[in-house]
Amino acid sequence: MNTVRHLRLGVNIDHVATIRNARGGDHPDPVKAALAAAAAGADGITAHLREDRRHIRDDDISALMAALSIPLNLEMAATQEMLDIALRHKPHAACIVPEKREERTTEGGLDAAGQFGQLMPIVSALTAAGIRVSLFIEPDPRQIDAAIRLQAPVVEFHTGRYAHLEGGERAAELRRISDAAALAAKNGIEPHAGHGLTFDNVGPVAAIPQLAELNIGHFLIGEAIFSGLKEAIREMRRQMDLVR
Ligand code: PXP
After folding, report:
1. pLDDT over 80 (residue 59)
2. From the alpha carbon of 10, which atom of ligand 1 is closest?
3. Where are the domains of the chain?
4. What is the Cα Rg of the chain in Å?
5. Is the Cβ atom of 150 under 6 angstroms away from ligand 1?
6. Which of 5, 76, 124, 235 is most exposed, with the fewest beta carbons within 10 Å of its own?
7. CATH number of the domain at 8-242, please?
8. Is the pTM of this model over 0.90?
């Protein structure tokens, strides 16, 4: 079995920008949060530049690229505008996500199978620029098959359903994620996971041996109110390491 020992933690700092934007000034600064996350043991920083710029803004991406010594994973919709921005900044990785203006957060995975033709030139252009492409998909063999055909090196499984379900339904969704991680790894794709993960639900996901990275945001930024960002990240790291 393809077991990855160190499970990387990507900290998503979008909601530091959400709080900043509530008052329109510079505080709290997402770059300062990213540096604190790195100091607390984050392996990477994730930021989603949404089309409506509701949290992260264009100047945050420039500032993060200049300040960070750990990899930046830019989450982006599959549009020409976002492709141009990614090619300009050349982050370590770009995770292609579906985006709907009216949604509160990324509510489901990308339909990589249904949007194959639209995704192919974007995946190719990012790859040609040396950016590691990830596709944010549901843990579904049909979507993994599309990722294989698109030659994406990474997929990130949407754990939102797992996070919201309970009991037997949650166990079934966990099996779906676990099977999908095994299928991706068997086909040479590095599986990641994220969305809705908390101290209480991260363990069973972190225990899936093929997973190489988790991306976690909203819970950590919320928890930072009570314990501070560094302590929240250290505790998440501890929970992840307990099951490896
Ligand atoms: N991964 C991806 C691709 C996402 O879009 C998000 C949310 O922006 C996350 C991970 C993190 O989700 P959460 O904020 O619920 O931890």
Report:
1. yes
2. 10
3. 8-242
4. 17
5. no
6. 5
7. 3.20.20.70
8. yes
